[in-house]
Design goal:
With 101 residues, this protein is an all-beta fold. It is built from no helices and eight strands. It has one domain.
């Protein structure tokens, strides 16, 4: 069974038993979360799309806070002495899909 679910404004293609990194969610390790905004469900060849979908994706939080790679934004204007360096690390949450019901 396959589903496309919308999590924090992004679409993810998920299957039961799959683990993936999503934008940071509130909760602790071991908490159960449900995603009701399911856009598409493929159940052994039968496809449901849009308002016909009546599925809920259930998942468990494996790691509450995972930091991504450091991204550096460096700005400089030549011959002016202007240099500005900003950096950030995006926060993610690792979840494991338990079921699509």
């Amino acid at each position: 069974m396959l589903a496309v679910v919308k999590i924090a404004g992004q679409q993810f293609k998920v299957q039961a038993g799959q683990s993936l990194y999503v934008p940071h969610l509130q909760g602790n390790t071991g908490d159960k979360v449900e995603f009701s905004d399911v856009l598409l469900v493929d159940n052994s060849g039968t496809i449901s799309v849009g308002s016909d979908v009546k599925a809920i994706v259930k998942a468990e939080i494996i790691s509450a806070l995972v930091q991504g790679e450091k991204v550096i934004a460096f700005k400089m204007k030549r011959r002016k002495g202007f240099r500005k360096k900003h950096g950030h690390r995006t926060h993610y949450t690792r979840i494991k899909i338990e079921s699509i019901a």
